[in-house]
Amino acid sequence: MKKSIGAKTIVYPTPVFIVGTYDENGKPNAMNVAWGGISCSSPPCVSISVREATYTHGNILNKKAFTVNIPSESHIKEADYFGIVSGKNENKFASTGLTPVKSKLVDAPYIKEFPLILECKLVNTTELGLHTHFTGKIMDVKVDENLIDNGNPDIEQIKPFLYDPSSRSYYGIGKRLKNAFSVGKDIKS
Fold first, then answer.
1. Residue 67 belongs to what H/E stretch?
2. Where are the alpha helices (DSSP H) in 49-107?
3. What predicted TM-score, i.e. pTM, was given to this entire model?
4. Which residue segment(s) compose the domain that 63 sits in?
5. Is residue 78 part of a domain?
6. For residue 189, what pLDDT is reported?
7. Which residues does the UniProt record annotate as the domain Flavin reductase like (predicted)?
8. Domain with 179 in it: what CATH number?
9. What is the pLDDT of residues 41-76, one digit of tens each?
10. Which strand (E) or helix (H) includes residue 172?
């Protein structure tokens, strides 16, 4: 039997997206965003939800661009830090020692040390209450060369991690189970 626990912001998996933006003066900023995911396959788009009170919110509206940076487990401390302090008051890149790199495609920085980057042009904004839902068209995906297998990012080498909103904890990705769009073919109708 299922037990109701009420309407909560719980879904699995929840990503750890580090969103890169520039402010109006060109200062790079990064923010930890858990509310997000792929939202369209053609054109390729990713969506994130950000509170209006954040520095990143205004930066996205101003520059019409952002990057989604996927950190590896080795950068869990820096990723968490990006969600603890505001870029209004602190230079997060100086504090963490990470390197902002100016995208050649969109007006936003990406993080050199993170293995997987999505460069996004803002295409849609929707107000949803406390959060604004930003959809970005993915202009390019960048991956560290040594982490590519058969032309695609290798999740086991990248070692992204996930956020659990119910325990407010980070988790690793776990093990590979089966091939998608294949294992289900064993079920006969």
1. strand 65-70
2. 55-63, 76-82, 92-96
3. 0.95
4. 14-186
5. yes
6. 67
7. 9-163
8. 2.30.110.10
9. 999 999 999 999 999 999 999 999 999 999 999 999
10. strand 169-172
